[in-house]
Specification:
Serine Threonine Protein Phosphatase 5, Tetratricopeptide repeat, 7 helices, about 140 residues, elongated, mainly alpha
């Protein structure tokens, strides 16, 4: 086929050559930075490694490049439960609890992920850990006077 002929998908041989050049350039590009250790520990385990990294000062409120460990943990725990059980209220929450206890801030994204999966256990944990509104009673159960 000559470069002027058009394949059935409408692309020319020149288009194919350009695509091949872009793919080769991507292969020669510097690799993306590796995932942070806390991300890897949440993803691959064991939980003891997550504890160790938190104790060593890992940032529980952000990853370089975006995202948070808390959102990652909720997504992982919820998805794991969804694939195994397909039943509400059976989601593990050990990582979520660990990160919240270490000071992870419940973000709108964390609530959204838990809500998307219907993870009521994670939603309850997030709600309890949500920072108090300015002027709200410290225990959220009392009306300030």
């Amino acid at each position: 086929m000559s470069p002027e002929q058009v394949p059935s998908d409408g692309a020319t041989a020149a288009d194919a050559d350009a695509l091949a050049a872009r793919i080769l350039a991507d292969l020669d590009a510097a690799p993306a930075p590796p995932f942070p250790p806390l991300w890897r520990a949440i993803e691959l385990g064991p939980v003891e490694e997550v504890r160790r990294l938190i104790a060593a000062g890992a940032d529980v409120n952000g990853y370089p490049g975006g995202g948070t460990p808390l959102v990652h943990a909720i997504d992982l725990e919820s998805d794991t439960a969804w694939q195994r059980y397909h039943e509400p209220d059976r989601e593990p929450t050990e990582l979520t609890e660990l990160l919240l206890a270490a000071g992870a801030v419940p973000t709108a994204e964390a609530f959204a992920v838990a809500h998307r999966y219907g993870n009521r256990r994670a939603l309850a944990l997030l709600e309890r850990a949500r920072p108090a509104e300015p002027g709200a009673a410290a225990d959220r159960g009392l009306v300030s006077e």
